[in-house]
Amino acid sequence: PKGKIFEEETEAKCAIREVLEETGYDISDKLVEDEHLQININDQTIRLYLITNVPKSTKFEPKTRREIKEVRWFAIDELPAHRKDNRTKHKLGYSPNAFFMVIPFVKALKKWIVAKKSAQHGLIV
Questions:
Q1: Dihedral sign of CA atoms 116, 117, 119, 123 in order
Q2: Total-model pTM
Q3: Do residues 31 and 16 touch, judged by C-beta distance below 8 A?
Q4: In this model, does residue 125 exceed pLDDT 70?
Q5: What is the pLDDT of residue 41?
Q6: Among 46, 12, 7, 47, which Cα is nearest to 20's?
Q7: In the chain, at which end, N or C, are there fewer CB atoms within 10 A of the end residue's CB?
Q8: CA-based radius of gyration for the chain
Q9: Residue 68: which residues within 8 A CB-CB, separation 6 or more?
Q10: Strand, helix or coil at 100?
Q11: Calpha distance 53→78 (Å, rounded)
């Protein structure tokens, strides 16, 4: 989920509101403000908050109409690494363009996952 920040709204509050609107899921008790990835695209800062421990069985129900086609889980290794990565087209039935907002974060997200798993097992990365 991505959206415009309202006046006097923090990035975290915006993320909580947007996720609730677009998925029907409340992340307010799971969002940790410094657990995020951030990139700049065309002079715009885009922040991806990393939310963990969401049950895979969660039923997502968007609160917006005609904005969200589908909400579903994807394995990190199935996500395209770049715009010409056609594995998703063959494996999942989606072109890489369907993941245009995810692609810039995939490499950093994989690194974050490795670091998080290593920290849980007491390893230094």
A1: negative
A2: 0.84
A3: yes
A4: no
A5: 87
A6: 12
A7: C
A8: 15
A9: 22, 23, 62
A10: coil
A11: 20
